[in-house]
Design a protein that fits this description.
43% of the residues lie in helices and 15% in strands. It has six helices and five strands, in the order ααααββββαβα. Helix 2 crosses helix 3 (42-48) and helix 3 (42-48) crosses helix 4 (54-66).
Length: 152
């Protein structure tokens, strides 16, 4: 009988075992949904995995965040948005259309350094979101104002 080579280690299962937890199909599916969706609210994850009830989705997201696999942020009012923990970036969110743009975390380096030097304050970039108006919405507003003669 020929021995099959060992399968490569499963990082999700390994991390769960490190914390005394076991791999379940629900945990695997929730993790896969967050990976695919990038910025996923619990409701969006539940839609992506309809065979898993919403309560289990919430509990699973919480567990995966507690063991360091996921991180959450708030991209507006309402439910948090989850992403892979190692996906370090900052967000731009448009008030008008709710679009989200991911930007490199180092964009905030100067601000983080200034806050640390002047206030001894350490910036948590995982929750750093800048709200405003995207270029498309600004252009639509300007275009609409010019049609009506409004010079705001």
């Amino acid at each position: 009988m020929t021995r099959q080579p060992d399968a490569p280690p499963d990082p999700l299962a390994s991390r769960l075992r490190e914390h005394g937890l076991r791999m379940t199909p629900q945990r695997r599916r929730v993790m896969a949904a967050v990976t695919q969706l990038v910025h996923a609210t619990p409701d969006q994850v539940a839609e992506a995995v309809p065979e898993i009830d919403l309560t289990t989705v919430y509990r699973t997201l919480e567990v995966l965040e507690q063991i360091g696999l996921l991180a959450h942020t708030h991209l507006g009012h309402g439910a948090p948005s989850y992403r892979l923990a190692g996906d370090d970036h900052v967000h731009l969110v448009c008030h008008s259309c709710s679009s989200v743009v991911d930007l490199p975390a180092d964009l905030t380096d100067a601000l983080a350094a200034k806050l640390l030097a002047e206030q001894q304050f350490r910036l948590d970039r995982s929750h750093f979101t800048v709200f405003g108006t995207c270029a498309d919405c600004a252009a639509r507003t300007t275009h609409a104002a010019s049609k009506t003669g409004d010079s705001r």
